[in-house]
Amino acid sequence: MILVVFLIAYLVRRRLDSLNAISGDELWRRWFRQGTVVKAGRESSIGAGLFLIVVPALLAALGIYALGLYGWRLAAYPLEILVLVLLMGSPGWRQVLEPYAEAWREGDMQAAWHFIQERLPANERGAAASPEIMHLALSKALMLAVFQRFFLIAFWYVVGGIGLAIFVRGLVALSEQWPQAGARPWYTKACEWFSWVPVRILSITFGIAGDLSGWLRESRAAMAGVTKKASEVLMISANGSLTGYALDPARFSRIHQDEWASFGGRSLSAVRDLLSRSMLVWICALALLVIAGVV
C-alpha cells in the first residue's frame, strides 16, 4: 500500500500546487509562532524547535503503530495520504515562473527580478548582478524547493514511515521559518545531513531521466564531493543532464544569440520537465521495490 498511498498523495498535491492551494509552509509558520519569544541569550538554542517537530512526528508514528496493533492498519492509510499532502508541495511557483519567463522574453530584467526575489534565499537577493546570475539563482532555488518538498519526503517516508517524513520536513521548515535566526544555521546543517543520500540518488536519477552521457561527464564532481551542499549537487547534475545549455546561459547567449529572449522560459521548462521525469523514475523504482517485497 505504500506505493498507492504515495501516488495518491503526490497526484493530489500536484493538483493543489497548480491551483496554488494549501501551503504546508503556512501551517509550519503558524505552528512555529510558539518560538517567537525566548529568553535573552537563548536565541541560538535549538531545543524548542526540535521539540515542536518531534512531537507531531512521534504522535503520528505512535498513532499509525497503534492502529496496526489493533488491526485497524487500513484506517491509517487515509491519514497518511492527508499528512503527505500537507507535507509535500510547493504552491505559488507557477504563479511566479510564468510572469518571470514573460518578462525575460520582453527583455525586462528588472521586472523579472521583482517577480522572483521573494523566492530566493535572503543572501542571494542582492547578488543578481546580471541576467545569467539571476537565472541560475532562480533555477537553484526551484530545484532545491522541489527536492525538499517532494523527493526528500518521499525518500524518508519509504525508509522510515510517516513519522520520519514529518520530522525531516519539519527540519526544512525550521531552517527557513524558525523565528530565531540564530538557530537556523544548525537546522540548515541538519537538513544537509538528511539530504546527503537522497540528493545523490536524485543526481543519479537525473542521468537516467535526462542526458546520460552528459551526466556521466559531470557526475564525478557531483557524487565525489562529500561536503557539497544539496543545491550544488542538484545544479551540477542537472547541468550535465540537460541538453541545449539549459543551465549554461553564458554559453547559450554566445551560440544562440538570436534566441536569447526565449532562454528564460525554455530553461525553466527543461528543469521542470527533468524534475517531473525524475519523480516518475522514483515511482517506478518504488513499484519494483514493492513487487520485490523490499518495502
Task: Write structural notes for this entry.
The chain is mainly α. Helix content is 73%, strand content 0%. The protein has 13 helices and no strands. It has helices at residues 2-18, 24-31, 47-69, 73-87, 93-105, 109-116, 131-160, 162-177, 184-209, 212-223, 230-241, 249-255, 263-291. The protein starts with a helix and ends with a helix.
Report the order of strands and helices: HHHHHHHHHHHHH
- State the secondary-structure class: mainly alpha
Binned, the helix content reads over 70%
Low-confidence stretches: none
Radius of gyration: 20 Å
Tell me, rounded to a whole number, the average pLDDT.
89
Q: Count of helices? A: 13
User: Please, what is the oligomeric state?
Assistant: single chain
The biggest beta sheet is recorded as: none
End-to-end separation: 10 Å
Report the strand count: 0
Strand share of the residues? under 5%
Shape category: globular
Present the secondary structure layout.
Blueprint: H1 2-18, H2 24-31, H3 47-69, H4 73-87, H5 93-105, H6 109-116, H7 131-160, H8 162-177, H9 184-209, H10 212-223, H11 230-241, H12 249-255, H13 263-291
Helix pairs in contact: 1-4, 3-4, 3-8, 4-8, 5-6, 5-13, 7-8, 7-9, 7-11, 7-13, 8-9, 9-10, 9-11, 9-13, 10-11
Brief characterization of the structure:
This protein is mainly alpha-helical.
Notable traits:
single chain; 13 helices; globular
